[in-house]
Amino acid sequence: MKKHCLILFIFFLGCSRQNEISSVSSQSKDSLDLYLSLANEYKLPVNIKQKYNRKAFEVIMSQPDDSIKRVNLFKVANRYFNMRDWNEYNKTVKIVLENAQNAKDSVSMSKAYTYLGDYYSSQSVSDSAFFYYYKAEKLYSQSNSFYNLAKTRLSKALLQFNEGDFYGSEKAVFNALRVVKGSNNNDILYDSYNLLGVIYNELGEYEKAIEFHNKAIASIDDKVIPVEFQPKATSLNNIGFVYQNLNDYKKANFYFQEGLKEKNLFNQKPELYAILMDNLAYSKLKLNQTKELPDLFYKALKIRDSLQLASGITANKMHLSEYFASIKDTAKALHYSHQALIVSKRTKNFRNVLVALKQLSLIQPKKASKFSEEYIRINDSLQKAERKMGDKFTRIEYETNEIKSENSSLEIQNRTLVYVFSILSLIGLFFYIYKTQQARNRELLFKQQQQIANEDIYNLMISQQNAIETMRINEKKKVAQELHDGVLGRMFGVRISLDSLDKLDEEAASDKRKKYLLELKEIEQDIREISHDLNKEKSGLINNFVAILEKLFQSQTNTFNTKLVYNIDSNIKWDLVSNVVKINSYRIIQEALQNCNKYARAKTITVGFKSEINYLVLSISDDGTGFNTHKTKKGIGLQNIVYRTAECNGNVTINSAKGEGTTILVKIPIDQKINKIHNES
After folding, report:
1. How far is CA 277 from the centre of its chain?
2. Which of 80, 121, 354, 528 has the most CB atoms at less than 10 Å from its CB?
3. pLDDT tens digit string along 307-334?
């Protein structure tokens, strides 16, 4: 008797599955969509729908193993669920689960666990159903998928309710409500309030039951819960059922009649229509309003027979048995009681078995002791089974959590290893950075020392050149003194002698004149030679850096047989070029000459300095053996050239090929003033 409300709730809770698959387009031209649509067409016979669903399955299995394939397989499973083809439903879901596990798709895995829970629930294998619901719940909890988490907890709550674990079911419902609190999930709210109403009805807390059924009605939202699911009629029936338990049959009658008034109830939910009609008939029986009886019972039974609703058929026949017992038609009363007992035992619905035995003991008082003994035996077994199942649910949660704890322990160990490894890596990295920084500091110190050494070398060269210059200046002074004291004295003597010729006769004067003219020629030649030497000296001492380079070139020519040709642009204002550029240019030429002497076997080396806009350009080329710049590793010499060019903020290009010689082109940025002076000059 109490199963009316429960049957109704189970059906309505299943609406979420039907709602999920009702969105499939029936007009798609694609073959897969067409097969899926036809498999979901309620007007077609079940065997035809199964045929189209198998075709859809074959098309999907030819697709690659990706998320789209899993989505489509879920659609096939949903249709098998609708057709109650449990074997194919189970096979399809397990294929999805395997695919999801291989792809590590936690979303599809959790959904597959829920579907497997539904399968085992339909097969009354409650422990397996609970296990899969619990696994799905854990995955949804980890992914913060609150809506699916709430739905799964409701499925688990319903399973616990069916097994008589009412307090466990109540706890699961409130856990479901907790994750959707404050969210606009009216379908979850409705299912939760409805189930709480059913639970409190079973626990005898009728005021709470009515309170939650009214909350369920208040939560109905047509935008979330489709009207064809008839949620209001469901809740009206459940409230009426609570009033039946309170023996307030007038109020029960009112709510059943209100439920039957809901629009399109018979077409959309014939099983709900049959329940309301059966409950209404039973209330009328209790109120002795037998005018429409037993016709109302028969109408309800006919609908249930056509839908093959075993539990509903049992309840209907029990009511008929009670009705005929009330009018003293014992034969028919026994007939319907025995049929109800047979159906209950066949379907293993032991609660209904108890109700049938109780009814039989009332109809046949002489056999009451026999029925009572069986009643007590089954009732005790049922209570033990319920307690055992409740313990089993607790054990499943505990064992699953133990496995999870072990996994968590392993995860903690792995995490600790990762932390240790990370810390060691950080220490190693820190040590590496420290050593690298030390090396860089040493390199920087070396560069600074090298720079100082280069400056010292250059200053030493300048000092040496200045000493030479001083000697040459002294030499000039000596020459000037000789010119003044020697050449000018001789010229003065010749001039005096020429003045004295006027006092001599013509013949004597002529001889002396020739002598003095010859002496003037000698003086003129001496002056020309001195002037030439002085001009040559001035040209050579235009700049100390040029003189230093010429010394380097002279040393190269004296030491090696290779011909050296050099050209230094005379327009370069070397006094405006920084010492850093001069030092590094000198070292680059020195390094290049050394490389030519060691490796090139060149006949001619050409060195040139010229001034371009914004750049001082140094070129060094030879006609030697050359090398492959892409394959040959750069030696220390070439690296030094690159390094010294970089010190001057310049760039270097090295072009070479085997048998074609080598050209080094260095371009160093110079002060705009140099070019300006160059242009003005």
Report:
1. 57
2. 80
3. 888 778 888 888 888 888 888 888 888 8
C-alpha–C-alpha distance, residues 589 and 620, integer Å = 7
Q: What distance in Å separates the CA atoms of residue 178 and residue 76, rounded to the nearest whole number? A: 32
657: nearest Cα among 618, 630, 620: 630
Residue found under tokens 């469901």 = 234
pLDDT, one tens digit per residue, over 185-219 is 778 888 889 999 999 998 889 999 999 999 999 88
Q: Could you tell me which of 47, 107, 134 has the C-alpha nearest to residue 401?
A: 134
Residue 262, CA distances (Å) to 19, 216, 383 in order: 20, 16, 38
Segments making up each domain of the chain, as ranges: 417-540, 544-680
Cα angle for residues 613, 618, 621 (degrees, 5° grid): 135
pTM of the predicted model as reported, rounded to 2 decimal places: 0.52
What does the alpha-carbon distance between residue 294 and residue 297 come to, in Å, rounded to a whole number?
Answer: 5
Phi, psi of 662 (to 5 degrees): -140, 140
How many other CB atoms are found less than 10 A from the CB of residue 111? Answer: 25
Of residues 623, 555, 545, the one with CA closest to residue 585: 545
Domain 544-680 has CATH 3.30.565.10: yes
CB-count exposure of residue 560 (10 Å: 0-12, 13-18, 19+) = middle
